[in-house]
Amino acid sequence: MDNKNKVIAKIQGAEYTLVGDISQEHMDEICETVNDMLLDVKKSNPLMNKNMALLLCALNLSEGLKNQKMLNDELNEQIGNLENIKELKEQIRIYKEYASRNNEIYQELSLENDRLKEEVETSRDSLEQYNKKIKQYKYDIEESRKTILDLQNQLFESQIELVKANKKGTYDD
């Protein structure tokens, strides 16, 4: 569905019929730009012939078009950079979420670590108390063993004296 329009281009009073997909209004704007450029060229050198003025006008338009293309390329590059910036901003947002979650996890683990440190300290205190009790029990056992040995020795000596006394009593009879 090519909508080809028949338009009239008016350049310095001459009319040219063209066919294309451009509107008459747009063609009129283009012609106005070309006519203004031709007037500027002729003002700078009134003796210049029409073909030379058209050639200079074409060169000026070509240079303008090339400059616009370079500008367009730069803008497209900047747009590409903006898209990269948007992607980077999204990545930063995601990393911030990760950092926030990691911070939460760190806080939880820090609290758990503090709790475990307290538990270890309590266990150390309990262990120290148990070790003191064990030491005391060992001392008590050693003292009891000595007491038992002393009592056994006394019993043995008493038995010896009893045997001596019984022997003496039987010899006295």
Supply database-style keywords.
2 helices, two-stranded antiparallel sheet
Low-confidence runs: none
Beta-strand percent range: 5-15%
Q: How does the helix and strand content classify structurally?
A: mainly alpha
Radius of gyration, Cα only, in angstroms?
Answer: 57 Å
How much helix is in the residues? over 70%
Q: CA-to-CA gap between the ends?
A: 157 Å
Q: Determine the number of helices (DSSP H or I, runs of at least 4 residues).
A: 2
Order of helices and strands: EEHH
Number of strands: 2
Mean pLDDT: 90
Pfam family, one: ZapA
Protein name: Cell division protein ZapA
Coiled coil: 65-154
Keywords: Cell cycle, Cell division, Coiled coil
Overview of this protein structure:
Helices cover 83% and strands 8% of the residues. It is built from two helices and two strands, in the order E-E-H-H. The chain has a domain at 1-48. The protein is mainly α and 173 residues long. It is rod-shaped, with a radius of gyration of 57 Å. The protein has a two-stranded antiparallel ribbon with strand order 1-2. It has helices at residues 24-44, 50-172, and strands spanning 5-11, 14-20. Residues 65-154 form a coiled coil.
